[in-house]
Amino acid sequence: MPDMPILGESEKKSPIAQVAVIAAIVGTIAGLGYWVTHRPGATPPEPVTEVAPAAAPVDAVPAAGATAPSAAVDQGAPIANAPPMPSAAPAMPLPPAPEGKTHSGPRTLSVTIAGPMETAIVGQVGREVGGPLTQVINRSLVWWVKVPGDLLKGDSLSAVFEEREGQEPLVHAVRFTSRKFGKTFEAFRYQGKGEAHAKFFQLDGSSLEEHLTDPPIDDYEQITSLLRDGRRHKGVDFKAPVGTPVRATFDGVIARKNWNFRGNGNSIELQESGGQGRTALYLHLSEIPKSVKVGDTVKRGQPFAKSGNTGHSFAPHLHYQLMKGATVVDPFVSHKTARASLPSEDRAGFDGAVARFKALMPAETVAGN
Ligand SMILES: [Zn+2]
Question: Could you tell me the distance, in angstroms and rounded to a whole number, from the CA of residue 352 to the centre of ligand 1?
């Protein structure tokens, strides 16, 4: 699947990627194509964000081990250490759906975790869909649990999704039963009346995603990369159309603009005045008004540029990155956050959507060990 608009860097791929290499050597043309476009050595999309190469192994996010992607601390069944080969290998012979491409309408995924999540998903729906689908599902899971740290052998995952030509799959519903938490989490995608974008809501009507109460961007379709999502990516990516106003998240001074243009595109660095002395990077902007100059002061909430798709960017989005000195900070930890709730006039419509998607999913498994 060439150039899916997956924003930000490709995910960490260690064992799976190795399996992919082996498969390619064995002669799977499709596997080879996948490898070429997804190999971990592929050009890093945002070179500038490699601020501290020495600290590279794990983004130095202050939330302790919370977001450390590779520190898979699995109390209980250590699935991260489970050898991926045996279960991954049988998955390699192409997807179950023989003639590929056109699965029209919603499909159901239902897997039990026995190793890396991607292995289970690819094993059921094939590599071409499974890779991108894992990333999309991951964006929901990270609001509930740490991935992969909290995943245990025996957890179950189901989802309703649709394939889309030339785009990543559209996920309508996700259900995850966690052995670690003894709990089932569910979220359903729904577009409320008058809303520009569909969002995931939980059964209690709360939105799945948190939002920043002083957001760096006015409106966005989805957050496609978070620091906690287990990828080595130092910013939060907000998928939004080119031209969406971008705002200061604190009072500050424009410290730099348009450095490392090839990677960052139009970009602005904002230095917080007082407060915590943080730095905010806004990358891939469509344009920066000529009136915006280094040294200008801006007020929290002030719009000063527009989001875009410039530099090394795969799709229109804002890359928002927060730093304290050379340390990457998670905006969802450092800034104030909130969760929206479903307006009451949308409740009936949402309940209908939930019923439709639940009918497509397997009967609920009981959480427990
Ligand atoms: Zn980014």
Answer: 35
CATH code of residue 248: 2.70.70.10
* DSSP element (H, E) containing 332: helix 331-334
The verdict on 168 and 308 lying in the same domain is no
Residues, Cβ < 5 Å to ion ligand 1 = 8, 235, 237, 319
The verdict on 196 and 88 lying in the same domain is yes
The answer to whether 167 and 115 have CB atoms below 8 angstroms apart is no
Confirm whether 11 is domain-assigned.
Answer: no
Whether 99 is in a domain gets the answer yes
Bridge-partner residues for 171, per DSSP? 161
- The alpha carbon of 225 and the centre of ligand 1 are apart by a number of angstroms equal to 7
Tell me how far the alpha carbon of residue 314 lies from the centroid of ligand 1, in angstroms: 10
Q: What is the pLDDT of residue 228?
A: 81
Relative to beta strand 266-272, strand 279-287 is antiparallel
What's the gap in Å between 310 CA and the centre of ligand 1?
12
Q: Is 149 in the same domain as 248?
A: no
**pLDDT single digits (tens) 110-131:** 999 999 999 999 999 999 999 9
Cα 330 from chain centroid (whole Å) = 14
Query: What are the pLDDT digits (tens) for 255-310?
Result: 999 999 999 999 999 999 988 999 999 999 998 899 999 999 999 999 999 999 99
Phi, psi of 220 (to 5 degrees): -150, 155
φ, ψ of residue 297 in degrees (nearest 5): -95, 145
- Domain check: are 222 and 185 in the same one? no
Looking at residue 103, its pLDDT comes to: 59
Residue with tokens 């209908």: 352
Q: How far apart are CA 256 and CA 273, in angstroms?
A: 14
Range of the domain at 68: 46-74+214-335
Domain count, the chain: 2
Same domain, 130 and 197: yes
Q: What is the pLDDT of residue 342?
A: 95
Going from the Cα of 122 to the center of ligand 1, the distance in angstroms, rounded, reads: 25
Task: Show the DSSP H helices in 94-151 as ranges.
Answer: 117-125, 127-141
Report CA(173)–ligand 1 centroid distance (Å).
25
Residue pair 178/185 in contact by the 8 Å Cβ criterion: yes
